[in-house]
Design goal:
6-stranded mixed sheet; 27% helix; 7 helices
Length: 285
Amino acid sequence: MKTPKAMVLRQQLQHFMTLYRNKLGLNKFTAHKFELKHLQVCLKSLDPIFHDYTIIQLTDIHLGQWITPNHLKGIIELVNQEKPDLIALTGDYVSYLIDQYEADLTNCLKNLNPLDASLAVLGNHDHWLGAKKMRSILKNSGVIDISNEVYTIHRENTCLHVVGLDSVMLNKDQLDNVINKIPVEGPAILIVHEPDFADISSSTGRFSLQLSGHSHGGQFIIPFWNNTIIKGPYFKKYPLGKYKVGDMIQYTSRGLGTNVFWFRINCPPEITIIKLKSAEYEDES
């Protein structure tokens, strides 16, 4: 199949910008440029055994644009230092080129070291460049693709469900089928690339928390307002940060990489560290 002209132009732009970045020596990883964003979320039905369960969300890596393999290696070292129980990857691992970054992405993701699992869903860019190849990269990296699937974490006689949906933007999600796969007992967390899906997911009454990316936080945050004027398809309502949507918490991470425009203004790349809190445990304390 012939590559669309718009895609070819963006691939050429990425090649040009990469050469420019390399000449300026911008490949070095600097830890303080990546914000460790801490978030506490109380889940009403979370068993106390899961109190302080730690999930790290990584999203919108867009490897090969502003984020280089050196950056990603350093990011993963920061992640592992936090000793997470679970890692949730919410899509867009590359932008317009995949073959050149397959080995680097695989080797970096292999080094993720959570206690339980690294779970992933795909974003729109992953489908544009080849969902089959991206799923292969995830598999070879030891990352479990839970697009339109349910992954259950067990502790003694209780459980926590992590539900994944494939890209909503490209109509790959299968919410009805996935809902039927979730066991009745235990709270459920949804990971899906596009944040505005929260209106639909919250209406099911089955999810306590949704983790998304897609927006990059707009890449520009207005000082003192802590919001962005840059909004687009599927991140118009929930472009940045924490929201209450019905009875569900929606969190939209600023993500790690950039797309098209290789800059961020007052919007640093983000590694999100989520601590789950049990309402029962909180009440007792």
